[in-house]
Amino acid sequence: MTRRGFILPAVAVSALLLAGCAPAPEQDARPSGTAAPDYCARMVTNSGGLEDRSFNQSSWEGLQQAAADYDIGVDAIVSTSETDLAPNVEQAVATDCDFILTVGYELADATAAAATANPELHFSIVDEQVAGENIKPIVFDTAQAAFLAGYLAAGVSRTGIVATFGGGNQPPVTLFMDGFVDGVAKYNELRGTAVRVLGWDKATQDGVFTGDFEDTVKGKTTTERFLDQGADVIMPVAGQVGEGAAAAILEHGDSSLIWVDNDGYESLPAQFRPILLTSVLKNTQDAVVEIIGADLKGDFSNEPYVGTLKNGGVEIAPFHDRAALVGAELAAGIDELRAAIVAGILEVTSPNTPG
């Protein structure tokens, strides 16, 4: 994923009309005038949809970039409910494409079943580890980047209270939350402060969850409760639900938002830019391009791709409009922590660390 804004071209918008087993419109992102490619890739979203401002969107960006780089055909099949998932994977397989990309833990079973039934095809799944000779998981050690975000949150908090919540209690979600609370703890350790985190207890692996990744009303009400308790930096790990958190923070007028997966400064509506402190990034786009490039060369493997700070698979976004709030000293401290993590001097651990 790049840090540039992403705008769906008109041809890609048609993918949003896809649901269930409806015929998929062609969305080839090849340069005009080129011959139909021999290689094609299909993507199946989870129920968050293509414009989820999260990993579906970033994964689709990766496929589009691969289409431009390698002159291949790409298309997206959009799921709107859990009942769409397995049929949509079957539909992707039926296109006779070489590479099938699925997005999210909800597609794990359908991906495994399709890969077993079609050993000649290559599959990748984003944000979930699924075993199979022809399945390459794409996962990210987001705790490393979230650690930096937690340290940052503690450093800018005026109230000494920050918060995080998730869409569901699942490893790809709680991995962010583990890193976040550890980053706050590191700030307290180094600065002699006592910043508190609401919404997540790493020791018990329990906290606040909205129960889904689409309902923005739940995100807003959850965030309002945190704001009422004094939290002034909040990190939702809940896909579109996080837009409700952004709305609550904007109305509150004196707090900050940390986005996840992609740079919210670019992907969220512009009205939220003033409240964006940073984003915890997963470089899904580049991972997808790299894996398809390897597949085209005949170098596909089922070894998981694990994004880290060291390989550029995870990172935090620029501070944008909040740079003055962060200041040079705090930014330098974050740079030192990043370097220590990359060098292996500082280890960020979680029960959910991918490997």
TrEMBL record:
Regions annotated as coiled coil: none
Cell membrane as UniProt keyword: yes
Signal peptide as annotated in the record: 1-24
Key word Ubl conjugation present: no
Ranges for domain ABC transporter substrate-binding protein PnrA-like: 43-317
Main location per the UniProt record: membrane
CDD domains, alphabetized: PBP1_PrnA-like
Membrane topology label: Lipid-anchor
The entry's keywords: Cell membrane, Lipoprotein, Membrane, Signal
Localization per Swiss-Prot or TrEMBL: Cell membrane
GO cellular component, one term: plasma membrane
Domain of life: Bacteria
UniProt record similarity statement: Belongs to the BMP lipoprotein family.
Name of protein: BMP family ABC transporter substrate-binding protein
Lineage, uppermost ranks: Bacteria, Bacillati, Actinomycetota, Actinomycetes, Micrococcales
